[in-house]
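Hey, resending since the last one bounced:
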Amino acid sequence: MGFDEATIDPARFLEDVEMRVGEIVAVEEFPEARKDVYKLTVDFGDRRLRSAAGLTDVYEPEDLHGSQVIAVVNLGTVTIAGFESECLVTGVDGGDGVVHLTTERDVPLGTRVY
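The structure tokens again:
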């Protein structure tokens, strides 16, 4: 298996990319978006951020509500069909759709990922 991206400095990655554990506390349909995504509200303990996440192929809203996710929280805000997405919920291609990355067991909200 080959990887396409150039090697980066690990210390620089950890300085630049801030990933945190959050809990999905609200899931809404988002028919206005061009792609099939949900509007999520993610609780990080000391604040809540919103995200447009392409998890509709694998998850029903009730499956996501209450689950812990790994999110990038320092990418800035992206506006999608009038909705401000403030964090990026991470995921992988599960073959039948995007599967969100989560923790092995519950950890405190806002815990930083290293």
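Residues 3 and 51 are 28 Å apart (CA to CA).

Sorry for the duplicate.
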